[in-house]
Amino acid sequence: MNKTLIALLGILGWTSFAHGYSFDRSLPKDVADQMKQDLEFVATIQGTQATPLHQQIFGKVNGTGYKTFFESRINLIGFNSCGGGSAVACVIPFMGSDKMWVTRNYIKFSHPQVARLMVVFHESRHSEVRNGNWAHATCPMPFLDENGNDKKSIWTGAELAGQDACDETPFGSYGSSTIMLKNVSKFCENCTDKVKFDAGLYADDQMGRIIDQNAIDRMKKDLYQ
C-alpha cells in the first residue's frame, strides 16, 4: 500500500494494518482486534493436501493461499448493522463489493476462532461481482434435519426455514466455506486437535444448508469419501 493511499485512508477514517485490507475507525476496537487475530491465525495454517473442490476454489490447505484469497477480494472492513438482528457480517454490493461490514455479533457469541473465520470467508465470497455476488437460495419450508427438527443457525439459533440462508452450489458462500473448513479439519498439519474438531463440526453444520441434490452429492463425494 503506497504512502499516498495510506494518507488518504487516514483522512477518510480508515486505519491500515500493513495488510491488503484496512479497518474503518468506526469499527469497535475489540471487534477489530479479534478480527485481526483471526486473520493472522488463518495465514499460519499449513497443509500439503486438499480435496478437488478445495483445490478449485482455494488451492491447497495453506495459510498463504487463504490470505491471498481474502485480501484479493476485501480491501476495507467497516462497522454496520447488516440489517440488524442476528447478522454477523455482510457485503453490501451497492456500497462497494470489496468492503466487508461486521456487527458486534462477531464477538458477542461464544464461538471458536475457526467459526469466525467461516463467517469471514463466507462474506468474502459475496464480494465476487463477476459471479453475481453468489446470491443465496431460499431455504425450504419446512426445513428439517434428519431427526425431523427445524434446522437452526449454529451461530444464533434462529430458524432457517424460508430464509435466504441456503446454497444450491458448492461454489457459493455456504458451499465454499464448508469446503474450506472440512479441508482444514482433514489436512491441516499444524492445527491443534481442537481446531480440527471445531472446523469439522462447523463444516458439517454448514453442509446442511446445501439444498440442491446434485451439489450435495458432489460435495459428499469430495469431502466425506
What can be said about this structure in brief?
This protein has about 220 residues and is α/β, with parallel strands linked by helices. It is built from 9 helices and 5 strands. The N terminus is likely disordered.
Characterise the protein shown here.
The protein is α/β, with parallel strands linked by helices. The protein has one domain. The chain is 43% helix and 8% strand. The chain has helices at 3-12, 29-42, 52-57, 63-71, 105-108, 113-125, 173-187, 193-207, 213-223, and strands at residues 14-16, 22-24, 76-79, 89-91, 99-102. Strands 1-2-3-5-4 form a 5-stranded mixed β-sheet. Strand 1 and strand 2 form a beta hairpin. Helix 2 (29-42) packs across helix 6 (113-125). The radius of gyration is 17 Å and the shape is globular.
Q: Could you give the count of β-strands?
A: 5
Euclidean distance between termini CA atoms: 43 Å
Uncertain ranges:
1-18
Shape: globular
The description of the largest β-sheet is: 5 strands, mixed
Strand content: 5-15%
- Helix/strand-derived category reads alpha/beta
**Helical element count?**
9
Q: Helix and strand string, N-terminal first?
A: HEEHHHEEEHHHHH
**How would you state the average pLDDT, rounded?**
90
User: What kind of oligomer do you see?
Assistant: single chain
Helical proportion, percent range = 40-55%
